[in-house]
Amino acid sequence: MAVKRLHLMVCAGTGCVSNKSMEVKAALETEIEKHGLAAEVDVIPTGCNGFCGVGPILLVQPDGIFYQQLRPRDIPHLVEEHLLKGRPVQRHLYTPPGEKGTIPLMSDIPFFHAQVLIALRNRGMIDPEKIEDYIAREGYQAAAKALTTMSPQEVLDVVKASGLRGRGGGGFPTGIKWESTKRAPSENGTRWVICNADEGDPGAFMDRSIIEGDPHSVLEGMIIGAYAIGATRGFIYVRQEYPLALKRFMIALNQARESGLLGEDILGTGFSFDIEVHRGAGAFVCGESTALMASLEGNVGEPRAKYIHTVERGLWNMPSCLNNVETWANVPPIILHGAEWFTQLGTGDVSENPWGGSKGTKVFSLAGKINNTGLVEVPMGITLREIVFDIGGGIANGKRLKSVQTGGPSGGCLPEELLDLEVDFDTLTAAGSMMGSGGMLVMDEDDCMVDFARFYIDFLMAESCGKCTPCREGLRNMNMILQRICDGKGQEGDIELLEEISACMIDAALCALGTSAPNPVLSTIKYFREEYEEHIREGKCRAGVCKALITYKVDADKCSGCTLCARACPVNAITGETKKLHVIDPNVCDRCGACYDACTFDAIIRV
Asked: By the 8 A CB rule, do 216 and 209 touch?
C-alpha cells in the first residue's frame, strides 16, 4: 500500500514573509531532512493564502489541516508530533469560536465559507515560481484553446458575453474595450496591451497578492487579450514598492518564454507576442490610464483630457488596451469554461446590455477594525453584512460597527444601516461609494468620520499631480476646511462650502482622481452629518479622535498611583507620587493618548 505523500504549503506572500514564514519553511526543511522524511513530505512555498490576520500560515495537504501564527521555534515539535506521530498540534490550529478541542480543516473555517475563487483560483495551492505547478491546474489551457481553436473575434465574443467589467475601479465592460482597441485605426497595425499593477490605495493588496501567488494567470490573460485585439507587444506597469511581486513576474516571464508561451510563433500558431515590465515610482495618479501611459513613455505621469480615448490613441499614440491585474486574471477561466459559466455568478442581466449588471466575483482586501483581516474573493451581489460578519468575523474587541468604506481613498463611507446593501458596481455607486479596485476598510465607534475624511483628502492632495485647477485647488481648500473643523475652529457654512467645492471638482476635474476625490467628504456628510455639526457647533468629537477637542483627566476613585501613565507621557504632563493620586496638567498635555493606553485601571478619562 502506497504511503500518502504530504504537501506542506507555506504561505510566502508579503504579509507572511514579513512575519518570518520563509524562516518557518527553512526550519521545516531542516527537520524533515533530520528525520529522513524527504521522500514522504514536500515543503512548498505558495502565494498569499488570504487569511492574513493569522499568518504565518501552514496548510497540510491533502488533509486540509490549517496551522496559524507559526514561528521557527514551533517547527521541531510540530514535525515530531504531526509528521512522525500523526497527532496535529492543537495549540497552533485555527479553532473557530466555540469549537475548542476539534481539529478543524480549512473547509471548516468561516473565513473561507462564502468565498468563490476565480481570480484567486490557485490561492495557496501552487508554487508561484514554478510554471509546472500552474500548468498542472489548467494553466495555459485557455491560451491554447484560444490560439488553436478560436478566431480573435470568437474570443472577443466570449469576453463580451461574460459581462466581465474592469476590476480596477472604472467597471468598464472588458469586451467592449477590447473590441474598440481592435477596431481603432492604426497606421502600421500596432496595438498594445497593458497590465496596470500600480496598486496605490492605502490598505489595498489585491493585485499584489494575485501577482505574488499566481503570476502566470495574469500573463495568460494578456496573451489571450493580445490575440483577440491583434497586439504583438504588452507592458506590465508594476509599483517599485512591490519587490516580491516584481521578482515573481520576472521569473514567470522567463519561464513562459522558455516554454514557448511568449515570443515568436506561440504554440506553433504563428502568433507572436511578448511582454516588458516597467516599474512605477509610486505615484498614486499613475494608476489613472493616461498618466500611466505617459509614465511608460518616459514622461511626467500626468493625465490628459478624456475626449481622446486610449483605445484609439494611447501609448505612443497607438490603440492601447489597459486592464488591471485582477481583470486579466479572470480572462483564462472565462475562455476555458465559457461565458455562461461566468454569468451564473453576480447581479443583473448583461445579455442585452454590457453595462446591465456585475458578473463574476470580486477580490477585496479586508482591513480596519475587523477580526479577520485578509484577502477575500466573493460573488458579486453578496451583502456588506455577509462580508463583514460572516467572513470577517465581526468587529474587533466587541465594538459597534460605524462605517464600511469601499473603493479606497476615492471611495465612500457607508453606515451600519446599509449593511444589507448588495456589493456590485452600480449599487455601491448609487449609495455614494464605489467598487474601486477592492479596498474595504471597516470602522468602529472609536473612529471619527470627519477626521477620516480629512485623512483621505490629505492623502489625495499630496498625490494630485496638480495639472488641473479644480483638483489642485479644490483638494487644498477642502483639506484646509476639514483641518479647521477637526481643530475645533469650524464655522457655520463650512459643510455647505465643502459640498460646493465637491460639486465643482466632480464637474470640472481632468481625471478620475479629481472627480472621485470628494466621495469621502460627501458620503460622510450624507450619512454622518451630525458629527460635522458637533465639531463645528459644540467643539465635540464623539469618537475622541480630534486632539484639539480632547481633554484627559484622572479619575481619583480609580487611580492607584502605579505611575504607568506618568512613565508613558512623552511631555511629562503627569505628576504624582507612587501609590498616590496623579494629576494631568492640561497646559502641558499634548493629547497624544499614551496615558490612556498605558493605564490598566481605567483611571484615565478622555473627555
From this structure: no
